[in-house]
Each structure stands twice: as C-alpha cells, then as structure tokens.
Design goal:
This protein has 313 residues and is mainly alpha-helical. Helices cover 72% and strands 1% of the residues. It has one domain: Orthogonal Bundle (ABC transporter involved in vitamin B12 uptake, BtuC), CATH 1.10.3470.
C-alpha cells in the first residue's frame, strides 16, 4: 500500500473514531433535551447537567475502578442537577430560561471549585476502558476498528435513540409526554398529571445529559477538566429543536457536530495543518450554518417553556 493510500486510510479512521467520541455526548444530551422539550420544558441548563455528570462520572470511575459504575455515577449527577429544574420550573413554575442559565453557571463554578479542591493543579487520568470488537466487522479496512471496536455504551446509545423514538410515537407514555408539551390542559382534563409527566421527562433529560457528560470524561477524554463540555450542551439544544420531534434525526445532527469537532485532527494526520483559531471556531460556524439552513423548518411544542397552571388557557 502506497503512502497516499495509507494517509487516506489514516484520515478516515481518525475522522470516524474522533467523530464518534465527540458525537456520543451530544447524542445523549440531545436525546434527553428532545424528551424534555416534547413535554414542554426548555432545558437551557443542559450543559450544566452534563458538567455535573462528567464530574460525578469521572470520580465514580476513578474511585470505583469501573467505567460502567462511573457512567452510572454520571447519570446520578445529571439527575441530581435536573432536580433544580423540576423543583423551580415544573413545581414552582419559575422562568425556565432564567433557571437554566443559572444552573449552567452554577455547574461551571461548582465543578471547577470541587476539582481544584480535590486535585489541585493535577489532572488524574483513567485507564482506557475495555472495548467490544464485533467479529469480522472490526477487521474491515479504515472503518472497522473505528466503528466496530468501541466501548459497548456506543451501541447502547444508538439503541436508546430508537427506543425513545418508539416510546414517544407508539406508547401511551409518549402520547402523554407530547400532550404535556402541546395541550397540557387536555392532558389534565384526561386525568393525567401534567406536573408528574413533566417531572419524569426532566429527570430523564438529566439522566441522559449526565450519561453524556460521564461518557465525555470517562471514555472520550479519560479525565475531567473544568469547562470541558465547551458548548456541547447548547449544540444538543439546537439539535433537539431542529429534529421536529423526530428523535432519530438526533443521530445525524450529533454526527455532523462530531465531524466538525474532530475534522482538524484527522486533517493533521493527513498532513494538512489548520490554524488553531479555525479549529476552535468550526463547531460554532456549523451551528450558525445549520440554523440558517434549517431553522425555518424547526417545530417547537406550543406550550414549550410555558408553566402550566390548572384553569388557565
């Protein structure tokens, strides 16, 4: 195999593996945000939940010596953070955007402070988690190892997207969630609690956001650093808004942003150097372009971000 073919293979392998590592946290978070938005709760604090999940997940994996227990700890961190939205927004009916922004800022400060108090200037690293290689497929050239020799949570993540899509479209629970975001008064009249439905939707969002943060710290980075999400939560909000309630499209959106986050590294392996400023700018340029092209086609539930008060219309 000549050098150009080797460079091409290295480029695609790096692009695919890097895109998956970058896309999975966004995929989990956008899936959770889609559930929350369908129930009528705009979760602007999504990135804060991811940060809490990343910090809790990293510590869980570090002290319990298990990536799976670390991911569970990340889920727990996200759920605990989502309780803020549940209490203040769903139960007390405060402004969802203000509370979400406050949660995000609080998470940035608290996780940075806790990490500094715990580790000082050091940044401990985790051992590389075990991977699951699918026979035959993992031996394919260029893409085999990148796609079919990964941590099992990657396969679970894609399966979750199909499961949530089926739940929202084919079950009474999904119908209740969508009714809570579209016509909460009708759901209330049918004898189903709007508050309870929105509560579990926000908790599910927190769990998935925490899982995304845990994946970022444990699998993708192998360590925790303050502010490590770098806007991933806000990218997930954009994806959730543009999917029009069709959560299967979160896969496409997440992979698109995953590619934008990792393409610079892949190009460097191919011998093409990109200025650092361009690399840092690329994901946000992608967000702007996606909004310009698809924002008019987006659909948001009619009761999104509106607190429900029985008797009011």
């Amino acid at each position: 195999m000549d050098s150009s073919a080797l460079l091409t293979e290295a480029f695609f392998a790096a692009l695919i593996s890097g895109a998956l590592l970058a896309a999975l946290p966004i995929l989990f978070a956008s899936l959770g945000e889609a559930i929350s938005e369908q129930a009528g709760v705009l979760n602007v604090g999504l990135e804060g939940m991811m940060l809490f999940g990343a910090y809790a997940g990293f510590n869980g994996a570090l002290y319990l010596h298990s990536s799976w227990l670390g991911l569970l700890a990340g889920i727990g961190g996200g759920v605990l953070a989502s309780l803020t939205m549940v209490v203040l927004c769903v139960r007390m009916r405060l402004d969802q955007i203000v509370v979400g922004v406050a949660l995000f800022l609080f998470a940035e400060g608290v996780t940075s402070l806790l990490h500094g108090a715990q580790f000082g200037e050091s940044y401990p690293r985790l051992e590389k988690p075990s991977e699951l290689a699918i026979p035959l497929l993992s031996d394919l050239p260029a893409v085999g190892e990148s796609l079919f020799s990964v941590h099992p949570i990657v396969y679970i993540g894609f399966a979750l997207v199909f499961l949530v899509s089926w739940m929202l479209r084919r079950t009474s629970t999904g119908l209740n969630v969508r009714a809570a975001g579209e016509t909460p008064a009708a759901l209330d009249a049918a004898g189903v609690s709007v508050v309870r439905t929105r509560t579990w939707a926000v908790l599910a969002c927190g769990a998935l956001a925490g899982l995304g943060g845990g994946y970022l710290a444990i699998i993708a980075a192998g360590s925790f650093t303050p502010f490590m999400t770098q806007g991933a939560g806000f990218m997930a909000i954009v994806i959730a808004m543009l999917t029009r309630g069709k959560v299967l499209w979160t896969i496409v959106g997440s992979l698109l942003f995953g590619v934008s986050l990792t393409i610079a590294t892949a190009l460097q392996l191919a011998g093409i150097t990109i200025p650092t400023d361009w690399v840092q700018m690329l994901p946000f340029v992608t967000v702007i372009l996606v909004l310009i092209l698809f924002a008019r086609r987006s659909y948001l539930p009619s009761a999104l971000a509106l607190p429900y008060v029985r008797g009011e219309r």
